[in-house]
UniProtKB/TrEMBL annotation, chain A:
Source species: Xyrichtys novacula (Pearly razorfish)
Function summary: Key component of the cytosolic iron-sulfur protein assembly (CIA) complex, a multiprotein complex that mediates the incorporation of iron-sulfur cluster into extramitochondrial Fe/S proteins. As a CIA complex component, interacts specifically with CIAO2A or CIAO2B and MMS19 to assist different branches of iron-sulfur protein assembly, depending of its interactors. The complex CIAO1:CIAO2B:MMS19 binds to and facilitates the assembly of most cytosolic-nuclear Fe/S proteins. CIAO1:CIAO2A specifically matures ACO1 and stabilizes IREB2.
PANTHER family (UniProt xref): CYTOSOLIC IRON-SULFUR PROTEIN ASSEMBLY PROTEIN CIAO1-RELATED, WD40 PROTEIN CIAO1
HAMAP family linked: ciao1
Protein name, per record: Probable cytosolic iron-sulfur protein assembly protein CIAO1
TrEMBL record, chain B:
Source species: Xyrichtys novacula
InterPro entries assigned: ARM-like (IPR011989), ARM-type_fold (IPR016024), MMS19 (IPR039920), MMS19_C (IPR024687), MMS19_N (IPR029240)
Any one Gene Ontology cellular component term annotated for this protein: cytosolic [4Fe-4S] assembly targeting complex
Domain MMS19 N-terminal: 42-303
Domain MMS19 C-terminal: start-end pairs: 550-980
Predominant location category: cytoplasm
Protein name: MMS19 nucleotide excision repair protein
UniProt family annotation: Belongs to the MET18/MMS19 family.
Record keywords: Cytoplasm, Cytoskeleton, DNA damage, DNA repair, Nucleus, Repeat
TrEMBL record, chain C:
Gene3D superfamilies membership: 6.10.250.1280, Fe-S cluster assembly (FSCA)
SUPFAM superfamilies per UniProt: Fe-S cluster assembly (FSCA) domain-like (SSF117916)
GO CC annotations, alphabetized: cytosolic [4Fe-4S] assembly targeting complex
Top-level lineage group: Eukaryota
Name this protein carries in UniProt: Cytosolic iron-sulfur assembly component 2B
Cited InterPro entries: FSCA_dom_sf (IPR034904), MIP18 (IPR039796), MIP18-like (IPR002744)
Domain named MIP18 family-like: residues: 39-114
Length: 333, 1030, 159
């Protein structure tokens, strides 16, 4: 079978608006999307096609920038330009109800991410800060720390797949890694290398490596070289690979498939691309090659790519034209 | 009598105790009818007036007052005196009685028999006993109206009160807040000022009490029943404030203060008030405020946020300067004009010469505003700025800078022009004449089109300065213009040069006759196409362009009879050389030559002299040349005369019709006679170069040959534009031959022209049986042709029908209805339906070559409206009844009719037709779509309720037309969508998202013109409902 | 602008407005495909009002046709604009207005880059980076007071 990305379906996700972000539920059956129309939409499969199951309106006053599923799949967190983060709880049917609204950021919340344990939640904002919230059994949320390691707008936060390690990307061109030490969260490493805004981050399945993408039109792969697991010591991550020359404009998102290891990117040149690692290459100098690309995947900028966590090769992307696309990535046998 | 007094008592009783208001009217009627007198009424009221209840007393007085309002006219002086004394006395009574008392007094102020001294006594009581501002609105208004009435009738007595009257009024109006009452109060204040009442020591108080409303800030409530506008209040108050120089010392500082305001309308009002007041002032009133005023004006113009403010500021500066210019100089006083202009120059002059030309325009505008105020001002300013401007022009290297300087100079020259009226003074620019000429001529020679264009405007302005340019300057100017005409390729420059030549020719014909015309002629004829064909194509093309410019320049400079005498022969020579082939003029060039002749005919006013020129020279030559060409025929071997071409003949027709329509009666009659003799009798004696055969019959088609028959269009030009008083000879026979030709001839230009000529003559025939018979006879023939299925002359008959229908419709001829009804019935005809639908456009629109007022046709005003109102119902019925495939014809007819209606009629008729028009938008015929859109677009400017109800359908159809294959339809539909964006926001906001989405597509249209409209429309829809949008 | 407001640059140089684009025969031709060219883009932005002067960006020479580059086939538009003074605090706002005007006026296939003319502004890089960040632009346009100013810049003058 030939390698490639084939379109499964296009969905008119957020008409007359832009679709900023899509995210698969942990069991892979639902897809949440959000956008400039201030709504969140939940999509599910009906027969062969994907349809809108529910629309979460009235939760936010402005653009909903990102959404994040809790690891149990029963909660959804949404970050909005209205400076709030909403927590939604899934009801028995497909519907969601607003549980609580987290306030505290001075202005636009750009990203929200649930930690693998489900007990922690991270948010970041144009106010340059990253907040970590703790969740208790009564669904109460409490801010445990405010991290001010960036000098600019923080664009993205992402948790390590297994550890309580948090990474953030910023308009200041840097990536920061944070860990808890004695009840105190601290920035333990600053990854410098990109020459413009870093828009997206993604850990690989094992958490050994981190992919980042940037306005400088490149993707970088960072590898963990931290000695031992000493709680207090600084972390050491190094850039082992830079993918440049593939992207015509800003790379807005990068996603590492935890089932296949394929690396997908979303780009401002309207393209969706998938890279594969050359398995024979030196782990300290990995080589990634372009495995598939659709140059006109969307009519406008592609904002986000997300791999289905259960169904290998199923990829969702979304764009400024408000559309969501579902792709199937086929590998060579 | 006793019965009457019983009646009166019962009326009083019923009114006062019974509270029956209608009894007042009955009482008044009783007094008017002489049943009882007013004093008997007072007597009968006795009990009520002495009641211990204030409300009963008030009711009593109210009855009296209401009766007085009805019958104050019939009172005697004695009665009035008693009543005044009565009312004055009541003013001291309980406050509830005051309102009816004031009403009574107001009624009495309208009496013509007001006893001497009573006005003064009323006012004294009023001012003394009543605190006006504690009264209710209507009572206050009553007081103001009393004052106004008395000021009209008892001015002398009121003035006798001296300043007490002013004081009393001031106390009455101080604190007034109601806009209706303010209008009355301002009217009183205005009377006080303008009718010479003694202000005494109260000038400042009067100013205070009125100026506290300045600037007026008032927005009428929605659906204001009183119809008072802000503008009305502003104007009334302005009249008061600017009415007397006594206010100058208070008003000017107030204006300076208000100019600091952030409110745009306050600034504007202040500037306009300033302009108004200084026209009343003398220089000494202004003297101490000049610096402050200048500082404010300068700031407003330099930093203005709106063009309105700028122009109001400049007007104010002109007004101030002209006020100062009016001052008579005496040797010991300071010349305030000089002092003021020094200020202006100090702040503005240096901006004219700064290296980057910062602030050059606002400074120039200020200086020019001052310059235009008076001759003295213009001398002072030009002397100060011109040398530096001229010097800079030489020193600057950047074209854009030089052009700016030229433009500034141009504005200076123009600003002076307006101030020099009848005075025969020397131009203020005399001293700068040589340098100005040098500058203009050098700019004309620059290789930069915008510089050249600007230079032509400067040249025009300079030439229009009386007595400025010398003959030698003009000759040089003409040389430059000629050179540019011949050599300049840039179309914009050529146009500017031609325009400039026209303007100069009006003032200095000699130079154009002796230099320009001969040169152009030489140029046009010098260069026939080389027989060897070895000239480069580009050279040929450039010669064509030169010819084109020469032809258009000949028309432009023909501004007066003397020049016309020189230019028309050149143009005629173009035609004859083209005809003979001696010079190779193309058909296009011949058409252009005709156009130039037409422009001359239109432009030159109908003097005897030019009329003769056209009558004696131009028309005979045109006829003669065309006839020569026709006789040679279409198949003559070798050279084919361009004068056979339809386009050339069609261009000749307006030359002939325009000049004939302007002929003096005697010449007109001769023309008619000659033309008819030629066409009817083959009489060629009137034509020059007479070598024609003697048996020509122009109105008979010779076999298939059309070269002679088509000349009938020239006949039409001659006879259809003559004044109605001119008798067309042999008209019966002429009409009959025209009818024959129009029904039988197979050549389209020939039969159409014959039909038009027939119609043009019919339109002017006197009403009566002869005419009716003629029409009926002709129509019988036409109908027969139309009704016989096999007729080969169907189109011809139809053409005649339409033209005759138009001729009759224009003059409201009773038979027009049967003809137009025939046209309506043809809409259902399988073959003629589309033509019939199209014909309504001809019926309703103006035609340029005949049947218009310029051609002296009988055209009734509003014939279109009349036709429309008489026939729209038929059309709607016809549409509803017509089978589906014929409906298009009805829609097309409708859109052709509606499209030609005046906008006012469209708007009033639209609600009835809207559903039909919307239907027409969905009609697949592009012409219908286009004309419906163009008729909708102006109507959309003021959204009607009927339109708003159909918004959904309207928007859907407009959007659908955005993807029409015809770009004109796409453009028109986008313009309509643009217009809809100005509808009330709440009505269209629900459509915003849909429209924006729909408009995204035409942004990528393949035609730029479509994209441009889409960009405009989409921009407006984006602003809708968005902050800062609208 | 109120009389009392202090203008950053009270004395701007005023430049002549370009005339209307002259129509050509091909523009009237139904079948001819008129490419989107520099002048067409320039016509979209030249009449944008300056946020602090009652003048258009063209009259202030903030935008010039030579600093407009479009490639219709590749759907790319690049604009350089020149703030009137090197410390102009309105630079971001002007850039934003240009960007918004083009977003509203161009087919969405276009990628639009708006930059400051190199060397003409003290914070050139910072402004360019902000204008290129579509997330910030989107957020700015959800801010009603900012949107109000931008819309005013884009309104057609009524006087």
């Amino acid at each position: 079978m030939k390698e490639g990305l084939s379109l499964v379906q296009k969905l008119s996700g957020h008409p007359d608006s832009r679709c900023w972000f899509v995210s698969w539920s942990p069991n892979g059956t639902l897809l949440a999307s959000c956008g400039g129309d201030k709504t969140i939409r939940i999509w599910g499969r009906e027969g062969e096609s994907w349809v809108c199951k529910s629309v979460l309106e009235d939760g936010h006053q402005r653009t909903v920038r990102k959404v994040s599923w809790s690891p149990c799949g029963n909660y959804l967190a949404s970050a909005s330009f209205d400076a709030t983060t909403s927590i939604w709880k899934k009801k028995d049917n497909q519907d969601f109800e607003s549980l609580t609204v987290l306030e505290g950021h001075e202005n636009e919340v750009k990203c929200v991410a649930w930690a693998p344990s489900g007990n922690l939640l991270a948010t970041c904002s144009r106010d340059k800060s990253v907040w970590v919230w703790e969740v208790d059994e009564e669904d109460e949320y409490e801010c445990v720390t405010v991290l001010n390691s960036h000098t600019q707008d923080v664009k993205h936060v992402v948790w390590h797949p297994t550890q309580e390690l948090l990474a953030s990307a910023s308009y200041d061109n840097n990536i920061c890694l944070y860990k808890e030490d004695d009840d105190d969260w601290e920035c333990r490493a600053t990854l410098q290398g990109h020459t413009s805004t870093v828009w997206g981050l993604s850990f690989d399945a094992a958490g050994q490596r981190l992919a980042s993408c940037s306005d400088d039109r490149s993707v970088k792969i960072w590898k963990d070289y931290s000695s031992g697991s000493g709680a207090g010591g600084d972390l050491s991550w190094k850039c082992v690979c830079t993918l440049s020359g593939f992207h015509g404009r800003t790379v807005y998102d990068v996603a590492w498939c935890r089932l296949t290891g394929a690396l997908a990117t979303a780009c401002g040149d309207d393209g969706v691309r998938v890279f594969k690692e050359d398995e024979t290459s030196d782990p300290d100098q990995p080589v990634f090659s372009l495995s598939a690309q659709v140059t006109k995947a969307h009519n406008q900028d592609v904002n986000c790519v997300n791999w289905n966590p259960k169904e290998a090769g199923l990829l969702a992307s979304c764009s400024d034209d408000g559309e969501i696309a579902i792709w199937r990535f086929q590998e060579e046998d | 009598m006793a019965a009457d007094s019983t009646l009166l008592l019962s009326l009083v009783e019923e009114y006062v105790s019974g509270l029956q208001d209608s009894k007042a009217k009955d009482t008044a009627t009783g007094i008017k009818d002489g049943q009882f007198t007013i004093l008997q009424l007072v007597e009968a009221l006795g009990l009520s007036l002495t009641s211990s209840q204030p409300h009963t007393r008030a009711r009593g007085v109210q009855l009296l007052s209401e009766v007085l309002q009805e019958c104050h006219e019939g009172l005697t002086e004695g009665e009035v005196e008693v009543l005044i004394a009565f009312f004055e006395n009541r003013l001291k009574d309980h406050y509830v009685i005051t309102p009816p008392v004031l009403q009574g007094l107001r009624a009495l102020t309208k009496c013509t028999v007001l006893p001497p001294g009573s006005a003064v006594s009323m006012l004294r009581s009023l001012f003394q006993d009543v605190h006006v501002q504690s009264l209710m609105l209507t009572e206050r208004s009553c007081v103001y109206k009393m004052l106004i009435n008395l000021m009209e009738s008892r001015e002398a007595e009121l003035k006798g009160l001296g300043a007490d009257f002013v004081f009393g009024f001031l106390q009455s109006m101080d604190g007034e807040r109601d806009p209706r009452n303010l209008l009355l109060a301002f009217q009183i204040a205005n009377n006080i000022i303008h009718r010479g009442y003694d202000l005494g020591k109260f000038a400042e108080e009067l100013f205070e009490v009125t100026s506290c409303y300045f600037p007026i800030d008032f927005t009428p409530p929605p659906n204001d029943p009183h119809g008072i506008s802000k503008e009305e209040l502003v104007q009334m108050l302005r009249n008061v404030l600017t009415g007397t120089p006594k206010f100058a010392e208070f008003l000017l500082p107030l204006i300076i203060e208000k100019l600091d305001s952030d409110v745009l309308s306050a600034k504007l009002d202040s500037l306009q008030t300033l302009t108004a007041c200084v026209s009343q002032y003398e220089h000494k009133d202004l003297a101490e405020f000049l610096e402050g005023l200048w500082a404010s004006l300068r700031r407003e113009v330099f930093q203005t946020s709106s063009e309105k403010i700028e122009s109001a500021g400049l007007d104010a500066l002109t007004a101030i300067t002209s006020c100062l210019s009016r001052s008579v100089l005496n040797s010991d006083s300071e010349d305030s004009l000089c002092t003021f202009l020094d200020l202006v120059l100090r702040d503005c002059k240096h901006h004219l010469s700064e290296p980057d030309l910062k602030l050059v325009w606002p400074s120039a505008k200020l200086l020019q505003a001052a310059c235009s105020a008076s001759n003295r001002a213009s001398h002072i300013i030009t002397a100060a700025v011109m040398p530096s401007l001229l010097e800079q022009y030489d020193n600057r290297t950047q074209c854009s800078h030089r052009r700016t300087i030229l433009e500034v100079v141009q504005r200076f020259v123009q600003s002076v022009k307006t101030s020099q009226s009848a005075e025969k003074e020397e131009s203020v620019f005399v001293a700068f004449r040589p340098s100005l000429c040098t500058m203009v001529f050098s700019a004309l020679n620059e290789n930069n089109s915008s510089l050249q264009k600007t230079a032509t405007s400067v040249l025009t302005s300079l030439a229009q300065q009386p007595g400025l340019l010398l003959d030698s300057d003009i000759e040089l100017a003409v040389d430059h213009l000629t050179k540019l005409l011949l050599a300049e390729e840039d179309e914009g420059v050529s146009l500017a040069v031609v325009e400039c030549a026209g303007a100069l020719a009006e003032l200095y014909p000699e130079a154009f006759i002796t230099k320009l015309i001969p040169r152009l002629k030489m140029e046009m004829f010098s260069d026939p196409i080389d027989q060897d064909n070895n000239r480069a194509v580009s050279e040929h093309q450039s010669h064509h362009a030169v010819c084109k410019r020469c032809l258009s320049a000949l028309a432009a400079v023909s501004t007066q009879a003397r020049i016309v005498h020189e230019s028309t022969p050149v143009l005629l020579e173009v035609l004859s050389s083209a005809h003979t082939g001696s010079v190779g003029f193309s058909v296009d060039q011949v058409v252009l030559a005709c156009r130039s002749l037409q422009r001359i005919a239109e432009k030159v006013q109908d003097t005897e002299e030019t009329g003769r020129c056209f009558h004696d020279l131009v028309i005979p030559r045109l006829l003669s040349l065309s006839l020569q060409a026709a006789l040679q025929g279409e198949e003559s071997s070798g050279h084919r005369s361009p004068l056979l071409e339809e386009s050339v003949l069609s261009a000749m027709v307006p030359v002939i019709s325009t000049s004939c329509s302007r002929l003096q009666p005697a010449l007109a009659e001769q023309t008619a006679l000659k033309a008819v003799s030629l066409f009817l009798n083959g009489d060629v004696s009137s034509l020059p170069n007479n070598s024609f055969p003697s048996h020509i019959q122009l109105l008979k088609q010779q076999g298939d040959s059309w070269s002679q028959s088509q000349l009938v269009c020239l006949l039409m030009g001659c006879v259809c534009s003559l004044p109605r008083s001119v008798e067309v000879p042999q008209v019966e026979q002429l009409l009959s031959e025209l009818e024959e030709m129009s029904c039988t001839c197979t050549h389209p230009l020939s039969y159409t022209s014959a039909a038009k000529c027939f119609a043009g003559l019919i339109n002017k025939r006197p009403q009566g049986e002869d005419l009716d018979r003629l029409i009926q006879r002709t129509m019988k023939r036409v109908y027969t042709e139309l009704d016989s299925a096999s007729s080969s002359a169907c189109t011809q008959a139809f053409t005649l029908l339409v033209w005759v229908a138009k001729a009759l419709l224009l003059r409201y001829h009773p038979l027009s209805t049967t003809l137009t009804d025939k046209l309506f019935s043809l809409l259902d005809n399988a073959d003629l339906g589309p033509m019939a639908a199209e014909s309504f456009s001809l019926l309703m629109s103006d035609t340029t070559d005949l049947l218009n007022r310029g051609c002296h046709a009988d055209v009734r005003i509003m014939y279109r409206q009349r036709f429309f109102s008489e026939n729209s119902a038929k059309l709607v019925q016809g549409f509803n009844a017509a089978p589906q495939e014929k409906k298009t014809n009805y829609l097309k007819a409708l859109s052709n009719i509606v499209n030609n209606l005046p906008k006012q009629v469209q708007i009033s008729e639209l609600p009835r037709l809207l559903s039909l028009l919307l239907e027409a938008l969905s009609c697949p015929d592009q012409a219908v779509q286009l004309s419906t859109l163009s008729c909708l677009e102006p109507v959309l400017a003021d959204p009607l309720p009927a339109l708003i109800q159909q918004l959904e359908a309207l928007i859907n159809r407009l959007i659908a037309l955005n993807s029409s294959p015809a770009m004109s339809v796409r453009i028109a539909s986008l313009r309509c969508i643009h217009a809809v964006s100005h509808f009330p926001e709440h009505e269209i906001l629900p459509f915003r998202a849909r429209v924006l989405r729909a408009l995204a597509r035409p942004l990528d249209d393949k035609k730029r013109l479509v994209r441009t409209e889409a960009v405009r429309a989409r921009g407006e829809w984006f602003l809708l409902g968005s902050p800062g949008g609208r | 602008m109120s009389g009392g407001t202090h203008l950053e640059n009270a004395n701007p140089v005023i430049f002549q407005r370009t005339g209307e684009r002259l129509q050509t025969a091909t523009e009237e031709d139904e079948d001819f495909h008129d490419p989107i060219d520099d002048r067409e883009i320039f016509d979209m932005i030249r009449s944008i009002n300056d946020p602090e002067h009652p003048l258009s960006l063209e009259e202030l020479n903030v935008v010039e046709q030579i600093r407009v580059k479009v490639n219709d086939a590749e759907s790319i538009v690049g604009i350089e604009f020149t703030p009137t003074i090197p410390h102009c605090s309105m630079a971001t706002l002007i850039g934003l207005s240009i960007k918004v005007k083009l977003l509203r006026s161009l087919p969405n296939r276009f990628k639009i880059d708006v930059h400051i003319t190199p060397g003409t502004h003290a914070s050139e890089d910072a402004v360019n980076k902000q204008l290129a960040d579509k997330e910030r632009v989107a957020a700015a346009l959800e801010n009603s007071s900012l949107l109000e100013v931008v819309n005013q810049c884009l309104s057609t003058k009524s006087s």
